[in-house]
Carboxysome Shell Carbonic Anhydrase catalytic domain-containing protein
Amino acid sequence: MPLHDRPIGERIEALLALSREHADNFCSPSAWLARERYLANHPTRILVMKCMDGRIHLPHATRTPLGIITPFRNLGGIFHLGWPYLGEMLTDAVDAAIHGGSGVLLVISYHFSRGERARGCAGFACDADAALAQAHEIRRQAERIFGRDNRHVYPLVCGFETDTDALIVHGITDATLDISELPPAEEGDLERRVASLCPDMPTDIRRDLLPLLKGNLQHVDSLRGTAREFDIEHREWVICVGRGFDFLHLPNTALIVGPYSPDLSEPIGTAAAIIAANMKAGRIPDDGFLLLASTPYEAIGVDRARAELKSGFLSEFAARVIAREHPRLAASMLSRTAVVHWPSRRLELLDHA
């Protein structure tokens, strides 16, 4: 039986099992060595602003070790760098990289489907042009914050075509580099193409972008000729609020609301409306849905205690919004509150949740 059709208790346990499997893989000796070796050769910090859509699994699509790419995920991939908490997180990540002697590649992504418009980004009503326009606006905001010369932080707009898992790199003009159009033999020409497309990109950042593009070229080529199932129906049954959901890359399963926007009630209400519509249409059982709140922490003590408090607040806030705007749906809500030990990516449910 597909996961979406199972009883709510089984669905929740399967999700928690997935989080445990993700943490085990992340903590394995081989994964740790892969990260250390990769960072020794490619120290540029890679930050990615992306939609919560589970199809956009960039480590998988670029064959990059887990933990190299730092994601910022939000419903619809909608961000504004003026949002106070988001701006602080982003500048903190940049400061850490610069103090370590590394530059930053800030990938600003949007996604779409060439085969069927309805498989595009629901946050933009499947309008790829609108999603791209917002990505360019975020790029302009990043340049205002970190400098228009792009010498230390390079904001790069990238599309993700979900039918082929291909990256589309946007240059400083209207020119693009579509990985799906390249045969594997062109791998050696990628550096020249990127240098032509983004002549202002610093050499060290371009060097560390290339493994992602080469990995994506290999990944896209491996999918050619294979039958892929495209599930375009919304069947989400989980609302995630907070951060630390790296394990969630299942299509049409969860709606992730990052704690970035000054008004969290709007995306939470939108997510609840989608869940309610899924139940009404019979796309998921009406026996319940999961509200999962999570906050990462680095160390025990004060840091973990603050993460617990923050997760509790997010859970209670989201529950109030859902109860106010969708009272019938709220009656079927199951809530779990957690923290994530970030060095191990281990999701820890709180006893008092």
